[in-house]
Structure formats: C-alpha cells, structure tokens
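Exercise 7. Given the components listed, write out the predicted structure of the assembled complex. Treat all entries as one system.
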Amino acid sequence: MTGDGSITSVADVPDDSTFLFTVRNTETDERKEAILVRLNDEHNDDEDAITGWLNYCQHFTHIKLDKGSGAPMRDGELVCANHGAYFESDTGRCTYGPCEGAYLTELDLEIEDGTVSLADDDYEFVATGPMETDDLDLSSKSNYEF
Ligand code: FES
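Answer.
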C-alpha cells in the first residue's frame, strides 16, 4: 500500500475502548466503519500494540461494536452491547456469546513513528469517526459531498 493511509496517532487510541474510523472497500467502493483497539498487557508487552477490525458484530453483522462513543471492553476483550458477545482484541475471535468461534474482520495496520496507518489491500482510509449517513440526518441534507 501507499503510505498515505494515516489514521491517527498511537496516543489517540484509548486504553479501554476503541477508536472509530471509516474505510472504503477498494473493489466495491462500499464504505464501512472500523475500529482500532489497543492491546492490553495481558496480550502484549508492547504498549504500542494496536489491532484494527471492521466495526461489526459477527452475530448480526449490521450491528456496530462501537456505536459512536467507543465500544465497551471487559478484561481486554471487545464486548458487543447487543447480546453480550465477547471478542478477543488480538485475534478477533468471539470467545462468548451467540457467535462464539466466529472472527471479526481484521484490517492490516502499519505503526510507525507513533502513527497508525491502514496498510490493507482491500480497504482505504476515508476519515476518522463514523460513516456519513444520508438517511438519518435530514437537517444537513446536501447535494455536496467532500
Ligand atoms: S448483535 Fe452482537 S451479540 Fe448479537
């Protein structure tokens, strides 16, 4: 990948929650939400160890883990607030809940000089924060996109 997929600085990824951003599938052009997760000591001694995942539960795949204010985490695992599934933050594997054994979709990252970048052949970084949604925010409906 090109080196221009910078997402954010390592310092901006929270300890016990997630950093939300938007990506674009390079083949289908579809936008998706994604999250960065900082691995806890239990998984890794490197305080800069961060993983990236698409922001969707594997039980109902339209359900977002991070609904805009950070996904809940417990003992270093991501928690889906809808039906309480747990996902390992280093492997993405569901360890408990209705989709036990399923895996979150991983995004390849590159961490260099304190910056986290997307280095995934299938996705391009679009912006930090949630996806723009036309259907919910009627007040700011506009024909202009950036
Ligand atoms: S939608 Fe996530 S556990 Fe059911």
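Discussion: DSSP finds no helices and twelve strands in the chain. Residues 137-142 have pLDDT under 50 and may be disordered.
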